[in-house]
Amino acid sequence: MTGVSDQQELIWVGGWKALLTIERGGLYFWHEFRPARIEGKVPGGIPLPLGGGGNIQDPRTRRDDRGTRAADHSFTATFHRSTARSFQRNGPGGAAGHISPAQTVVNGVEELLLAAAELEAALQRNGWGFCFIGGVAIQRWGNPRFTDDIDLTLLTGFGDEEKFVDALLKELNPRRPDAREFALRHRVLLAQTRAGVQVDIAFGALPFEERSVARATVWEVRGGVMLTTCSAEDLVVHKTFAGRDLDWGDVERVLIRQHGKLNFGQIRAELTPLLELKGERESLDKLGRMIATVERRLQAKP
Known about the structure:
Distance between the termini: 31 Å
Helix content: 25-40%
Structural class: alpha+beta
Oligomer: single chain
Largest sheet: 6 strands, antiparallel
Number of domains: 1
Number of helices: 9
Strand order of the largest sheet: 1-2-3-4-6-5
Radius of gyration: 19 Å
Strand content: 15-25%
Low-confidence stretches: 1-8, 10-99
Shape: globular
């Protein structure tokens, strides 16, 4: 960690460099990440357009990562500080304490990725088909940013969901008293690791979900930590389908970081029937406009 000024610090988070800025009584993490190694284009899977998650108000609503977005290509996460040098925050595992802002970011991301790796090992032991989506996949394909929960798609098919739920609840703690019944009814298990990191597991069975998991590939985060994530293309599909401002910001960042590597034919082929089913085909036009805007912007750069 290197001091830049009284208000800024350069920090490293799992191999990414970020600029942390403190201003106006709040902490603003302005992430100008530069990956230690750039991922190439590989096929993979992502946020499920057909499952629920997070703060459920509707079974199809997913909870993704928190924070506010800057207008440029960076991500800004805001926290209220207790002093100029330290502040109190509950991290992914629920631990609270006054620690430096930079250390909070590092601890939170590190804890989440390690929790995801432990979950991956458990899923692999069962021989199940799955892939991480949401914030974990964004770390790989988009602009890496703070996230405090884990989302994944697990292939269960139709009819055998009880077997999967019961096995998962031996590895994870439920986040609600009726988590088992809720999972069987809404096809999403709301759980948390023993350390308190929240996990949303969406049960996949549709052809797109099967193809998405089949395309998933292993990402070596660092130091032998391996995570199976969806592809960049499928991440765009899921985020476009979700269609919130948060998701469109993620789509733009994937388009920028993976410029020249994405298979747009595959994206449109997967996305079109899903949007037609949802009755929101206009999102496909919005995606087309965003692709064109990103292309013009990047071509205009010297």
